[in-house]
Amino acid sequence: MRTGRIAFPSRVPQNYADTTLSDRALRGGCHVQREVIAPFGIVLERRPSPSKWADWSWRIAEVIPDVPATDGWAVIHDGDGVTRYLSAPHMLVLHHKMVEAYDANIETGSPSIWAMLDDEVTPQMPPYRVRGITADPYEAQGVLDSAAGLVERLAMPRETVAWMAQYLASLPEAPAFRKRRRDRVETEKQIFGKEPIFSPLGRREEREP
């Protein structure tokens, strides 16, 4: 299943991606976590295919945080012609050098997680193995462009949005990145009725007298 092009701003500037941890920590005057992780389960759904050229139609139905571990794909539902499989855990990793990619994800107004599956090389059911999950739309686009396996954009759970927002807010910013956001004319969308993590005026604590 291909989901088309992913809409997001331009790629992370090279000078930002190359900024070292020590440089950013010195600028921010604090310890910086290189990465944070959260475990998820991936739910894969099988239905009879409407096409005469295939027996089954497959899609990634959802990602679920903090589910019990499975041994490969485990059937969690089988009825009415629909079978659902769960595979867990798979780690969502946020890395300190990819801040702008995650920011771009939030700025779409629909924060997402992309689940990525590869085709199995040997016949089995399901015919996919998990490549991984990501909150980086650029990584997902690269896999999508390969035209193999399954890539699905899924709604990010609200608690995961809050977790990612907290991590982003804790990181020092590269000067070019901060200036780019402050120079924007448009107002960024609010997420769940709250002030965006990064607004054109900078972080909330930077604006307080």
What does this entry look like structurally?
This protein has 209 residues and is an alpha+beta fold. The chain has one domain. The protein is 26% helix and 31% strand. The termini are far apart. It holds the Pfam family DUF3305. This is Molybdopterin-guanine dinucleotide biosynthesis protein A.
List the helices and strands and how they pair.
Elements lengths: L13 H4 L3 H8 L6 E14 L7 E10 L8 E6 L2 E14 L3 H9 L4 E8 L8 E7 L2 H9 L4 E6 L2 H12 L5 H8 L21 H4 L2
Summarize the structure.
The chain is an alpha+beta fold. It has helices at residues 14-17, 21-28, 99-107, 137-145, 158-169, 175-182, 204-207; strands at residues 35-48, 56-65, 74-79, 82-95, 112-119, 128-134, 150-155. It is built from seven helices and seven strands; from the N terminus they run ααββββαββαβααα.
Keywords for this entry:
209 residues; alpha+beta; three-stranded antiparallel β-sheet; 7 helices; 26% helix; elongated
